[in-house]
Amino acid sequence: MAGTLTLGVTDPERAAGAGGAAMRMRATILIPDVRAFVADASHPGEISGFVDFAPWGTGIRAHGGKFQLFVPSADPELKRMIYELAFEHNGKPYYLAGWKDVRSGPVTRMWRDTSTLFTQLHEGADASGPVIGAGILRLGFADFVRLLCTFRSPGASSWLHGLTAIAIFVRFFLGELWASYGPRPRHKTTYAVRGINANIRRAPRAELWAAGALRVQIGR
Predict the structure, then answer these.
(1) Fewer CB within a 10 Å sphere, N or C end of the chain?
(2) In whole angstroms, what is the distance from residue 181 CA to residue 79 CA?
(3) Residue 94 CA to chain centroid, in angstroms?
(4) Phi, then psi, of 136 in degrees rounded to 5
(5) CA–CA separation, 218 and 199 (whole Å)
(6) What is the pLDDT of residues 43-100, one digit of tens each?
(7) For 7, how many CA atoms within 13 A lie in the half-sphere containing its CB?
């Protein structure tokens, strides 16, 4: 995901019209257990990667962070995707906190919402530090296509095991998009696993027999 970040600004949308310096986030997402990921309402995974920020250099390695998908908010019409990376520059810790707003609405808004990352740069090791910059990063369509080609299931015991882990994630992701952008009325999202329609959060463990790990790369 690439765009600009403006130092001295705290609002990403205001920063978008203030110029700013080129910034890019390159990340690897790891979901150790797809079944547990889907069952957890906060849908957490692991994130690592690099930050490129024109004034500070390229290939700045991140040593931690936070990744979550479709996190419920106080607004029932709004969920968030969270992408955060912790890194250091000149011996000082910084934290790049990014989020995508997935708000219920027409399908014509889906691409814009899911490809736009609002960002704030914090001083310190986490998002509790003061905001010293803000901006907007976007995932281009070509990057999205490349992202789809990086789906892997590390440690899978067979191709079927790996394919099933990927299929469960894709089913979950599309189901969440349908819940936000599909035609109303919207009901609690259900998923089909191995041809069985069930609420995946309550599905018996046997129905998710092949759920393993999942890894995907963004912006490589």
Answers:
(1) C
(2) 12
(3) 19
(4) -135, 130
(5) 29
(6) 999 999 999 999 999 999 998 999 999 999 999 999 999 999 999 999 999 999 999 9
(7) 8
Residue 152's contacts (CB-CB under 8 Å, 6 or more residues apart) are 162, 214, 215, 216
User: What does each C-alpha distance from 71 to 80, 89, 182 come to in angstroms?
Assistant: 5, 30, 18
> Residue 130: is it exposed, middle or buried by C-beta count within 10 angstroms (0-12/13-18/19+)?
exposed
| CA separation, residue 121 to residues 89, 91, 147 (Å) | 12, 16, 25
- Structure token pair of residue 55: 């004034």
Cβ pair 137, 106 in contact under 8 A: no
Q: How far is CA 102 from CA 10, 44, 78, 118, 205, in A?
A: 21, 16, 6, 12, 29
Biggest CA-to-CA distance, the chain: 54
Q: Which residues share a beta bridge with 62?
A: 49, 87
C-alpha torsion 218→70→193→204, nearest 10: 120
**pLDDT per residue over 200-213, tens digit each?**
344 344 344 445 78
